[in-house]
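Please, structure for the following, as tokens.
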Amino acid sequence: MARRPTRAARGSRPAPAAASASPPLAARAAIVAAFLELLADKRFEEIGLAEVAARAGVSLADLRDHFNSTLGIFAAHVKDIDRKVLAGNDGDMAEEPPRERLFDVLMRRLDALTPHRAALRSLMRSVSCNPALALAINPIAVNSHQWMLTAAGIGASGPKGVLRAQGLAMLFGRVLRVFVDDEEDNARTMAALDRALARGQRWSGLLDDICYLMPRPGRWRRRRRRDEDEIYAA
């Protein structure tokens, strides 16, 4: 008796998804690149997900697999920049003062941002007149600058670290206003960054003083107990 051919032998069609699916990392990179190209030409709030997908050459379904929104695509771009900066940490600056280490880290960040100057300029125009967008982007920037502080060997954890990262994000934002219109040598940007870090160093010192003077729960309880003992002794 002749054996029935198996499914494979009968030439069953392979699943279309397996044949046509793009490598996830390649698709993600294409989406981020397409978004940045569009951002260089138009305002952030005018960019639609459908045109990002079309520019990237992926389907809306594939785009949805990777990102929820254009803000999510922007966050992925920031993460990519963070990774490039962190990958350049080689320990050569370990013996330098904190300000010099942070200057080196932020200059590496500016180097990584150089190919995206036009997109960054467009984004800053949108943020300047769209408070809701500014508020949405702020947590992304603060988290990114926590990594930059960490790369420079400066504490970035806890409430104090978040405040420090928030201050750095604001200072770096002012530097970016110079950077987006600077020449290729970034001379004006370097000078602006140096001035910003000098201001930031003073602000950080003030923050340290404030945190030192703020009563801590344990210290407050000990002081209260000591005061009560003195009252009872009297």
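DSSP finds eleven helices and no strands in the chain. The chain has one domain: 23-218.
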